[in-house]
Design a protein that fits this description.
BirA Bifunctional Protein, domain 2; 33% helix; 13 helices; five-stranded mixed beta sheet; binds glycyl-adenosine-5'-phosphate; Rossmann fold
Amino acid sequence: MNDQNLMEKIVSLAKRRGFVFPGSEIYGGLAGTFDYGPMGVLLKENIENLWLRMFRDDRDDMYGVDATILMNPKVWEASGHVAGFSDPLVECKKCHVRERPDILIARVHVGKALMLPADSSKQFELLKKEKIPCPIGGEHEWAEPRQFNMMFRTHAGAMEDESAVVYLRPETAGGIFMNYKNVIDSIHPKLPFGIAQIGKAFRNEIAPRDFIFRLRELSQMEVEYFVKPSEWQQAFEEWRKMMHLFAEAVGLPNGMVHELEVPDGDRAHYSKRTIDFEFDYPFGRKELWGLAYRTDFDLSAHQKGSGVSLEYLDEETKEKFVPHVIEPSLGVDRTVLAVLASAYREDDLGGETRTYLALSPKVAPVKAMVAPLLKNKPELVEKAREVREALKKVHPAIAWDDNGNVGKRYRRQDEIGTPFCITIDFDTLGENPELLDTVTLRHRDTGEQERLTVADVAERIKSAVA
Ligand code: GAP
């Protein structure tokens, strides 16, 4: 299967089985927006809950907030986003299409080695030198690059003038910095401590693409971890390890996650050191998550912008200083895509080709499916319902599917990545007295089946999803 083909298959399965749908689809969609369906919501929530557990709840130095998306615009002036959160764009002089010069260059160099200059004015020179054409009209008359701010603007209140402009937050981090002082004043944590938040962020990406990889409305799982300036390296290393542990926990194969030390000049304006965690997506190795050392850039900028002291008082040394910040920032949607892409499988089972998702049971939307062998035998149905109720006490995501024959039920569950299928038959009811109260447990990846008591099945599910 080539990679383009794989991507098409993932997108198709995501829609067919209720993971991800194009946003506002019946009106032709809206670029850069996707909705999560019944299975997608469960997968996404499982990923988020695992993150909350590992990054916040299992630690004594982490606190949560849920800040607003709309904030005082001064937040984004101080943070540097009004001035600097922009992409350089060139415009075709004929058809007025706008595009990033690096994307135009990469398009004509597909499959060829290319040293792309980081600087957009050098990219522009290359664009002219190579007479790179406009993808719409084919002309190659490009205007000089201009900075295009990626923040969505709207207006708060009845006035639609400049005085009412507010932005949709471009990163959840802003809401965390706004609550740093509130957390200190209400909870009184000692350094080092961190604040975690999951939420939406908005970016007016010029070229949203690759399904849920580059979106205009996205979700982030972010931590701002506040440390003494001298202790940033140690904290950086701790979070670096934690990000690898999280990759493992959601089931991303070790060999598909790579670190990239982002060089000077390519880092965001606030960062003194950044490691990108990259993933081998079907469309290439691309940024999955980022880990940044934001220094005291944000707190100092907000202190200056607001006139409110954001210094931390060390009770022991009586020293006052602005803490430094380590930021592990994880995109939810890119994680979902990496999980789906690495779990997608096609194989031959019992002489038939099948598609399945080899999802980790921890993130699988449905943990097990229970069904009676025959749906027209009330005694089997009754027993199966009883078994399902017992298993639901272990985990609520236990599905019921008595449609069609057993093979078809298995195929449906395989496609959504359900690790276990449980069938209740006449032996469960005691037709063979030795097998009374036992069921068939079928394993997704191998198709193998075994006979177990309901209590053993419950144990298996419990340990697989823990
Ligand atoms: N607070 C830091 C920050 O926002 P970033 O590298 O711009 O840094 C962090 O974004 C993460 O958010 C990325 O590593 C990625 O997972 C996700 N992300 C960024 N832009 C995205 C987009 N347009 N669509 C989907 N996810 C995106």
